[in-house]
Design a protein that fits this description.
The protein has one domain: Orthogonal Bundle (Arc Repressor Mutant, subunit A), CATH 1.10.10.10. It contains 5 helices and 2 strands. A two-stranded antiparallel ribbon has the order 1-2.
């Protein structure tokens, strides 16, 4: 048992820099001017995956604005995307985003 706990501690220590970097990025994301827009996007994709075009129409925003915010959200690990059969990118909340909402 002690060996397993030690291995997990070593693994956590190896990844601590990555986690601290992610926390810093999330703090920047939350403090930035565009947080209200990003929050609206996260709310929309909480129920189902959507394309950037669908989000732009639904939120009455410019497509390039939505793409910009989606890229920021994806870089910070709050959004993921998949290609559908029609080669469209479908964006959805990541597990990290759901955890963030639980902390608010």
């Amino acid at each position: 048992m002690d060996f397993i706990v030690h291995l997990k501690s070593v693994e956590l220590f190896k990844n601590i820099g990555k986690y601290l970097h992610m926390i810093t990025k999330i703090e920047e994301l939350l403090a930035g001017k565009g947080w209200e827009t990003r929050k609206r996007i996260l709310n929309e994709i909480s129920s189902r995956p959507m394309t950037a075009y669908e989000l732009a129409k639904k939120l009455n925003l410019n497509y390039s604005t939505v793409k910009y915010h989606l890229e920021l959200l994806e870089r910070t690990g709050l959004v993921t995307h998949e290609k559908d059969r029609g080669n469209r990118y479908l964006y959805q909340q990541s597990r990290n985003a759901r955890l963030l909402y639980q902390l608010e």
